[in-house]
Each structure stands twice: as structure tokens, then as C-alpha cells.
């Protein structure tokens, strides 16, 4: 019998959550008059990516490898 690949299953759940969250943001933005839902969702996705790259929660911290 094959061994379950829990890492793959977890990644798929995370991707599903991310897609659902983006869809909700698009719907929420679409309800606001005069705004582009595609642009808002893209901005939210970019902000989330930047937060992950910068260390999530330490936006004022200096970049790794930089000397004070």
C-alpha cells in the first residue's frame, strides 16, 4: 500500500485557501462602486508576497546581511 503524501495534501489545501481568499477580495471590491476588482486583488496579492519575503511582521527590521 502506498504511503500518503501529507505535504502535497497540505500544499493543495493552502492553495485552495489562497484562491478562495483572493476570490472573496475580488467580490468585495466589486461591490464597491468605481473600483477595479482585478487591480485590488493584484495589489493584495503583491502585498502578501512582499510580507512573506520581508519576514512577515518585521517590516521595520533591516534586511539580512546589511550592516548598521
Describe the structure.
This protein is mainly alpha-helical and 68 residues long. It has 2 helices and no strands. The radius of gyration is 17 Å and the shape is flat.
List keywords for this structure.
flat; 2 helices; 68 residues; single chain; mainly alpha; 65% helix
* Secondary structure tally: strands: 0
- Shape, per Cα inertia axes: flat
- The span between the termini is 56 Å
State the order of secondary-structure elements, H for helix, E for strand. HH
Using only CA atoms, what is the Rg? Answer: 17 Å
The proportion of strand residues reads under 5%
Strand count, sense and barrel status of the largest sheet are: none
Helix content: 55-70%
Low-pLDDT residue intervals, each spanning 5 or more residues: none
In round numbers, the mean pLDDT is: 78
Amino acid at each position: 500500500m502506498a504511503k500518503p503524501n501529507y505535504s502535497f495534501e497540505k500544499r493543495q489545501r493552502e492553495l485552495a485557501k489562497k484562491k478562495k481568499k483572493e476570490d472573496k477580495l475580488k467580490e468585495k471590491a466589486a461591490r464597491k462602486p468605481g473600483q477595479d476588482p482585478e487591480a485590488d486583488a493584484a495589489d493584495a496579492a503583491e502585498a502578501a508576497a512582499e510580507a512573506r519575503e520581508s519576514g512577515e511582521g518585521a517590516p521595520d527590521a533591516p534586511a539580512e546581511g546589511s550592516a548598521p
